[in-house]
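Record format v2
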Amino acid sequence: MLDVALQFLVNGLVTGSFYALMALGLAMIFGLMEVVNFAHGEFFVMGGVVAYAFCNVLGVDFYLTIVIVVALMFAFGAATDYLLIRPLRGQHLLSTALVTIGLSIFLINTMLLTFGTSPQGLDAPFSRKPIIIGEIVITEGRLFAIVVGAVAIVATHILIQKTRLGRAMRATFQQKEAAALVGVNVERVYTLTFALGTAMAAIAGVLLGAVFVIHPSTAELATLKAFVVVILGGMTNLPGAVAGGLLLGVVESLWGGFVSTGYMDVIGFALVIFILLFRPYGLFAPRPGR
Amino acid sequence: MTKTMTGLATAVAAVAVLAGGALAQTDTIRIGVIKPITGPLAFDGNNSVNGAKLAVDEINAKGGVLGKKLELVVEDGQCKPADSVTAAEKLMVRDKVPVVMGAFCSGATLAVMPVAERNKVPLITGVSSSPKLTEAKQSWFFRNAESELMTAQAFAAILYEKMGLKNIYYLAVNDDWGRGTVGAFKETFEKIGAKTMSIEYVDRTANDFYTPLTKIRAANPDVVIVVAETQAGSIITKQARELGLKSKIFGVGAWATPTFMNLAGDAANGVFAGVVYASTATGDANKMFVDNFKKVFNTDPGKYSAGGYTTINVIAQAIARAGAAEPDKIREALTKTDVQAPNGRIKFDSHHQAYGWELVLVELKDKVPHIRATGVAKSPYD
């Protein structure tokens, strides 16, 4: 029983790393910019599709591919903000939400046309052979996903806490008018935030291709799950998004393991309803308001 | 003035469209097709359409049917009941096609059946497998595919008696097909004395199946019956090997296809699959189909391509026998179907359920499906 429970826990942490990476980007974009990004799942899959183009089609080294994908998707995020989100700055939440819904439909169908309908895996340099620790089985690819997820999250934390840009981001987050008054280039902060969130979803997409398979149909559920996590953690709470992601991964896995795999995806959505009813500011918010 | 001009232009355009439609109707016979072209089942849906296209090209190269060329009108039903019904209405009411092939998923086909009934247009599926569809005697619906019950009846005995697999675990996608297939297998297996250990249902777009597979590994059954399409099936196979699952795997779905074997890689070795079609099957009809398919699409055909191909041949033969491309005559002719398909000789029974394929049990090895046992699909009604 215990060994099976430990295996479920490890399984949950792998899925949780994906959720955390996705949710962190989504929470940053919402927290700073008040943009509800419905195209987040598409950015995620796009990371995988771009990685497929470089790694499998052009034969670029896998690790170099990760760097290229991050750079390209960062630029793509910046361009998206500049062309689609910026013209609607200061408008109601719904206007940008509609734009991102449109973008998500556009992206998913473009990917179906270019990438095709067949699921694909990345040529990652990981052995499929399992690593057995005690009774727990894990693969190189899964370990790599957890490590990369952790590195990306820690790097984001350092960026926000220790750098000049991070200070500008925090200032904008607290009070954008005041930040602008003291000379923070708020527009630039917005664009960089959106780009950073996009790049983070794309990293998760590369990991998706390395551990599982890439398929455009993954996007829809990924967006929904990211929203679940963000609501769990508190809409604007970045550490909450990370903790919420890992928590959802583990809870789903344990629920699937000990109760029912058929209702695994229900658990997250049920949690959201309860949290919105009883703790509307998220599990980890100390008190309402900020 | 402007308004009159616009009205005039619209009228002219409408006349042009109508004329164009009428023109198209005289020199070709149009066959409606409803398949998932986008969405999670797009890959399998497009394979089915490719099979249909090949059949049309072959028939047209030989001069078509009744001196006219065949033409496919493909609509994207996305396997959703609502979209499939819209597609069917469009094909039957606006395009006035005399016969429709579709709509892949049983749920979608079930929704389209009353539309066909109301418009009096024959509807044929080459894929949908839910036993529900042909339970009652049908008038306008035909099923040129094996029902889940037929699959279960053909394979359960082989697995239980010949291979000695007694303790069965099920892992299936959580939809009507997954649940229906598990139900059919469970019933058939339990009748002959096999034991059901447990059933796990999973989302078909999920990526991580470690949780159900960990449970299955702990239970250690003789065989896991996995009901899944290409995407989920290949990931499950890989992850089962990673976790070191010792039980045999028996796949139901499109498991003997090149895409599946490429995706699963080495993990596919030793996996058993029960399929209605394997490209390695013997016979001239299959050899010709595989050769021609490879020429056009550069890959071996799978189950869904064969389904699309055979269904178009069934339709073409019926139109030829009917002597006119009219719905009621085609319907009448369809009941007398006798077609040599790549995988058997197809006829319809009193419920319009086709039978006569050779169902094959294959073992996948080094990207080739090796045939281990065969059985003929019998009519479950007559």
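Chain A touches chain B at residues 4, 7-8, 11-12, 14-15, 109, 112, 116-121, 128, 130, 132, 137, 139, 208, 211-213, 215, 217-218, 220-221, 252-253, 256-257, 260-262, 264-265 (CB under 8 Å).
The mean pLDDT of chain A is 90.
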